[in-house]
Amino acid sequence: MNLELKGRLALVTGSTRGLGKAIAEALAAEGADIIINGRWSKTVGNVAYEIEHKFGHNIHVYQCACDATDPKKIKEFFSGKMLQIGHLDILVNNIGNLEKFGNFFELEDENWLRCYDLTCMSAVRFTREAIPYLERSGRGRIINISSLSSHQPGNFSPHYSAAKAAMNNLTKHLANVLGGKNILVNAVCPSTLSSGGWAQNIIDRSRRDGITTEQAEQLMRNEDNKKSPLGRIGMAEDVANLVVYLASDKANFLTGHIFDIDGGITRGV
Ligand SMILES: NC(=O)c1ccc[n+]([C@@H]2O[C@H](COP(=O)([O-])OP(=O)(O)OC[C@H]3O[C@@H](n4cnc5c(N)ncnc54)[C@H](OP(=O)(O)O)[C@@H]3O)[C@@H](O)[C@H]2O)c1
């Protein structure tokens, strides 16, 4: 299938590693130009260099080193470098994290607020600045990286599930108000992936249960594998493929939807 992404430009937030990097690579493999984002210029530069060398004969890779919790820095990027680049077609809001793992009783106000700031407000800030560009594109796309826990919360980290639920709600709102500008807005909800935050989850579990990280990983894999009809946890590439499809013209009648990508884990019809 030719997804016709050649020449289109995608900003993937939090793309120096984990899922964001996999999404950037999958878009680049389809010929899209990419803006890599993370907090540190050096890391962003290294990843941009790596992707350029992998796919560079075909594409341009730009750099956006800015902290998503600092609205001023995002504004500066859009009024500076982005203005020079001059166009944007796809925004993938990928940044998000627990900040602190814990159950309801272990979480302080500060944990809730920091998680919301990083997970939901980062998307608000990038989206706000990107809209004029996406409108000019004529086929703009916003794809929010949510989580299965946004609508199927577990027993831990309710601050994270709530922030992702807010992101789902925002997705529907933006789809309503941006449809007239031909900007399509969707969210994807991955289940646990064997990349990115997985390593931190293993460390948290080993501390919690007083076991080694190897034992914690084995335990978590067994538990997660059992939940899925497919018998495995997801990979970043599984999610990246869905994002690439949603970014393409093949998905041009899809907006305002929240797509689970979970190997069948979701309970309910
Ligand atoms: N992994 C999973 O199992 C899973 C499951 C469901 C949903 N998700 C969601 O998928 C997304 C990616 O998860 P991941 O596990 O791949 O994350 P990750 O490995 O922790 O990667 C986080 C990325 O975000 C960047 N980042 C972190 N804080 C930032 C900030 N303040 N400003 C700018 N960039 C920042 C990091 O770059 P620097 O460190 O270089 O700044 C890095 O590129 C998240 O929204 C997560 O909630 C993940």
Q: Secondary-structure map with pairings?
A:
Elements: E1 9-12, H1 18-29, E2 33-38, H2 41-55, E3 61-65, H3 71-79, H4 81-85, E4 90-93, H5 109-137, E5 140-145, H6 158-178, E6 183-190, H7 198-209, H8 213-227, H9 236-247, E7 258-261
Parallel strand pairs: 1-2, 1-4, 2-3, 4-5, 5-6, 6-7
Helix pairs in contact: 1-9, 3-5, 5-6, 7-8
Bound molecules: NADP nicotinamide-adenine-dinucleotide phosphate (NAP).
Structure explained in plain terms:
The chain has 269 residues and is of the alpha/beta class. The protein folds into two domains: 9-191 and 235-260, Rossmann fold (3-Layer(aba) Sandwich), CATH 3.40.50.720; 194-233, no CATH class. Helix content is 48%, strand content 14%. The chain contains nine helices and seven strands, in the order βαβαβααβαβαβαααβ. The chain has helices at residues 18-29, 41-55, 71-79, 81-85, 109-137, 158-178, 198-209, 213-227, 236-247, and strands spanning 9-12, 33-38, 61-65, 90-93, 140-145, 183-190, 258-261. It has a seven-stranded parallel β-sheet with strand order 3-2-1-4-5-6-7, with helices on both faces. α6 links the parallel β5 and β6 (183-190). α7 (198-209) crosses α8. Residues 14-20, 37-40, 43, 67-69, 94-97, 118, 145, 147, 190, 192-193, 195-198 line the site of NADP nicotinamide-adenine-dinucleotide phosphate. It holds the Pfam family adh_short_C2. Belongs to the short-chain dehydrogenases/reductases (SDR) family. It comes from Candidatus Yanofskybacteria bacterium RIFCSPLOWO2_01_FULL_42_49.
